[in-house]
Amino acid sequence: MSKNIIGVSNNSDSPWLDTVENVVSLIGYWRISSEDEIHSELLKNKYDLILIEASSIKGSIVALVSRLKGDCPGTPIIVVTTSPTWQNARDVFIAGAADYMRSTLDEERLLTLLSNALR
Question: CA 50 to CA 66: how far, in whole Å?
Answer without folding.
Answer: 12
